[in-house]
């Protein structure tokens, strides 16, 4: 394979399978069957399920495991990243300046995580920005900390985007993932590549086309991942016994 992927574990296989399922739930027999098809031991899968319930990753009821609310939110972000909604870009940038002070370290960390999840880059401490080509909903907690403006940089917006979001680095890694998809020969290999691909897609800064490097691979990587997800879920559905279908 063209690049090293994270080693597939029972936990990662369960999470990836359920994050790709709609609704995000399945009977234990299906989860075990899917994991076994990926080369994992049934005993390891059952231990992982027990631990994931204890850790709050999964909920169990009536013989069905489902993602917790926290991971359902992750699934929503994942789905939105695979099929992003972009606006026409007129050259303006969204600018959020921190005006509230006095928060503790945990609150500041949570705020920074929120801003990064909304695809904002930190220009300097307390100043967050990005091209205004996506809808940004900060939520009440983050919104109370900032004042929001629209602006346009005097210097090169391409250089600013590169400094904030490193799209050339993202594109390089996306090309590696596309080669890994092409080189993978087994279901397990393709599953590992797909898991890495969707993590990478979540990190796509969603820049407007004028700010992207040439031959941007974002759409191609999304299409490759979506094709595998469709293929995998069709295969996985065949493992359901009639009473569970």
From TrEMBL:
Record-annotated Transcriptional repressor PaaX-like N-terminal domain positions: 10-70
InterPro entries on file: PaaX-like_central, PaaX-like_N, PaaX_C, WH-like_DNA-bd_sf
Pfam families cross-referenced by the UniProt entry: PaaX, PaaX_C, PaaX_M
Keyword presence, Transferase: no
Domain Transcriptional repressor PaaX-like C-terminal: 181-238
Native organism: Nocardia brasiliensis (strain ATCC 700358 / HUJEG-1)
Domain of life: Bacteria
A GO BP entry: DNA-templated transcription
Listed name of the protein: PaaX-like protein
Keyword Metal-binding: no
Keyword vocabulary terms for this entry: Signal
Domain Transcriptional repressor PaaX-like central Cas2-like span(s) in chain numbering: 87-135
Signal peptide residue numbers: 1-26
